[in-house]
Input
Amino acid sequence: MNFLNNLDRRWIFLAMALCVGVPILVIGLTGYTFPETPTPLAEAFFDEVDVAGEAKGRRANVLLAFDFDPASAGELNPMAVSLVHQCAQKGHRMYFISLWPVGPQMIMDAVNKVIKVHYPEMVYGEDYVNLGFKAGNEQVIKVMGVDLTTEFRTDVEGTTLSQIPMMSGITNLEDFDLIAEISAGYPGSKEWVLYASTQFNIPLVSGMTGVQAPQLYPYFPNQLKGLLGAIKGAAEYEYLVNQWVRLDKLTGILEQAGLPPGEAGPLAAEFAASPDQVSTWTVSAAASTLSPEAKAALIEAATEPIPGEYLEGQRRMGPQLFAHLLMVFLIILGNVIFFAQRRRGGGS
Amino acid sequence: MQILTRLIPLLITGIAGLVMIVSAFIPYTSEWGKIAGQFFNILAAFAFVLGGGNLLKVHLKKISDQGAGWGYSGVVLVCFLVTLFVGLFKIGTYPNPSYPDVHFSGETQGTGSGFWWAYEYVFKPLTATMFSILAFYVASAAFRAFRAKNFEAILLLGTAFIILLGSVSAGVFLTDWIPNAGPFGDLRLENLRIYIMQVFNTAGTRAIMIGIALGIASTSLKIMLGIDRSFLGSGD
Output
């Protein structure tokens, strides 16, 4: 007991290093991820991005504010990547900004991972634009509410906004159908709630670090339409986006093959629910009218592996699981030692 | 009353505060709020210059005094000046495609630029490492300080266990035997976690937020009316 009481903290550091390091190695080698069950908060986040712009019957203008830095990128980057993934697949127009000095690098990272690699057909200035960083914290949001061009005269490359086609018709925050924000602190989610969504009644969804989430829960579901907390929220959202993207691709192939949308949707859902039975459902009666090319495309879409960058959140849940288990074990062990000492009349 | 050190700062504060309040409630005056906001943003940009100046002053003094750890101040200054130089002069940037002959038209942080290099290979790994170290200290602190000494501490411990286990798949594994759709479905760890966060946490946080908001409102009013002058640095 004395050994445990005077345990060198370097043993604890070693245990933590193993709990984090070993799962990273194992998951990296095997690709195995733990199953995720999305919570209503993650589902609400996904749904809000999904329906953006539908009420106005147009392609949605989504303002993406990346207010974080590399210190919290481990927690927030997977949700930022998934957010861009969903917006790109949905065909939303993306307007990137940041209230943090190193935010533009976070934007570039997500753009390089998602748009440049998987959606090369998207055109800069027509489908997405990076407006970069602006100093002034919540005042930037306030001024953007009245006149966006006062704050942002050029994009991050120095091109004036009047030369960027997708900036036409964008004058202030009210021209956006949705604000999607990823936050690591101040300025972040709270400022967007106070100065944008509440004041101008614009739908706002936010992903944030674990320490921030408890302070933002009171705003859900009125001021914040969706909320992702830490890597757990990122993993749930990532799972939802990956499932939907596969379903969307299958639906697209079926519609291109000549099936009416009313039939293609349910059939794609049926296929997506059992991708391992791909050889069975391509010879089923429902798929009898499909051409061999369409069937080959269906098989490919159903069985193609999900790219690694779209699994980062779920992969990071592995180290998190073992780190949490170690924390629980250490707390219990510390209390066992505490009570044993107290019984023997030792110090507190 | 000293005009420059007291009266003018008090007037600026009072008028700016009043303009921001009025512009939030009267749409006709929203333009006033925008102008006040622009002034603020210009000042915020100047704050970076002041911050840089202060950093130079503090660390040059440390080097000059040759006190303990003055070498670190030297490292800070060298990194600061190199980054400033690389950023200001856009070292290694590629010109904007619209203006290929103008070097300064390029993006400071563009891929391949000096600023990008410093960020990607120095700033990013260093800050990520600093944040990662927290996991080790939190584990050590949990072992030494998290004790069930009294009823409140037991409540805190119980909540911590539910949140820690409910946030990972261990929670699902441990309480998977409880049917999710049944009357006891809410007792599954992952559902208990959501319940704690959305009910207990929200109630507590909301009370604190309302208290803080009232405090901010009364303090702001005192500052705007010149009753609280501590921000002027006078101590009264």
The CA atoms of residues 207 and 228 of chain A lie 4 Å apart.
